[in-house]
Amino acid sequence: MSKLSVGIVGLPNVGKSTLFNALTKKGVPAENYPFCTIDPSVGIVPVPDERLDKLSALSKSKKTIPAVVEFVDIAGLVRGASEGEGLGNKFLSHIREVDAIIEVVRIFEDKEIIHVHDKIDPLFDIEIINLELKAAGIDKPILYVVNTSEASENKRDVLDQIPGPYVEIDPIFGTGLDKLITEAYKLLDLITFFTTGEKESRAWTTKRGATAPFAGKSIHTDFMEKFIRAEVIHWDKLLEAGSYAAARAKGWVRIEGKEYIVQDGDVLEFLI
């Protein structure tokens, strides 16, 4: 599947780069993801998934390869960016390339870190960002990320007024990052299916509603073009059976054809 990415945006000094750096510390070896961009402003971040760990343990896999989300650190968002202010034109070209947006707003007070508008007002920040996006004709799924600090006072009274789904994080202490990664994955409307064996267990990504041949393309284009059928079992049924052989003996491994809609958590073997 062609890669999908999430752009991280925010006004200056809200903790956007701190968040990006915290996420990319969780990075993965690039050789497992040849389709991903090698760029300092792009982070390839593994999606936490205990299902994969359990399948890997069941199969005694030599390698375990998670699904990933691509996060892009997008600079240049200031008031007037949609009219080319500051790095506005660069900002607009970058944000048009991503598939969903994370808006970082800050609710903690810290006199050492001056806010661009000299006040901590996350709702005002959101209004500015959304006006810039609207003025530029950009309409994408948005997840709000509320940057907090355990070391400071936080303005929690505004949280119930945030105009959409949000996740609270503290990137210094690492709080909330796994939830953010998982929610970003959902924001892109992605699901995970698995392949598992002694060589490797791997989480693969496809769009929700994908047919088996389309999902197979995530592994190799041959799996889409030469698809005959797929063997399917849900991950928890495979664990319950204890092995593929036992699952087959119980009749739990199904044969599905080209019309099958892959479900989140399916374990697949493609036959071509």
Give the end-to-end Cα distance, rounded to a whole number of Å. 18 Å
The CATH class name of the largest domain reads: Alpha Beta
Classified in CATH, the superfamily of the largest domain is P-loop containing nucleotide triphosphate hydrolases
Q: Which stretches of 5+ consecutive residues score pLDDT under 50?
A: none
Number of domain units: 2
Question: If you compute it from the alpha carbons, what radius of gyration comes out, rounded to the nearest whole angstrom?
Answer: 21 Å
Report the sheet-strand fraction: 15-25%
Helix content: 25-40%
In CATH, the architecture of the largest domain is 3-Layer(aba) Sandwich
By DSSP, the count of extended strands is: 12
> Can you list the strand order of the major beta sheet?
2-4-1-5-6-7
Largest sheet, described in full?
6 strands, mixed
InterPro entries: Beta-grasp_dom_sf, G_OBG, GTP-bd, P-loop_NTPase, TGS, TGS-like, TGS-like_dom_sf, YchF_C
Protein name: OBG-type G domain-containing protein
Organism: Candidatus Zambryskibacteria bacterium RIFCSPHIGHO2_02_FULL_43_37
Domain TGS: 189-272
Structure write-up:
- The two termini are 18 Å apart.
- The protein has helices spanning 16-24, 50-59, 88-97, 122-135, 177-187, 212-216, 221-225, 235-241, 244-249; strands at 5-9, 42-46, 63-65, 68-73, 100-106, 142-147, 166-169, 190-196, 200-207, 229-234, 254-256, 266-271.
- Helix 2 (50-59) packs parallel to helix 8.
- It has nine helices and twelve strands.
- It has 272 residues and is of the alpha/beta class.
- It has two domains: 5-50 and 66-188, 3-Layer(aba) Sandwich (Rossmann fold), CATH 3.40.50; 209-271, Ubiquitin-like (UB roll).
- The strands form three sheets. A six-stranded mixed β-sheet has the order 2-4-1-5-6-7, sandwiched between helices. The chain has a three-stranded mixed β-sheet with strand order 3-9-8, covered by helices on one side.
- The model has no long low-confidence stretch (mean pLDDT 87).
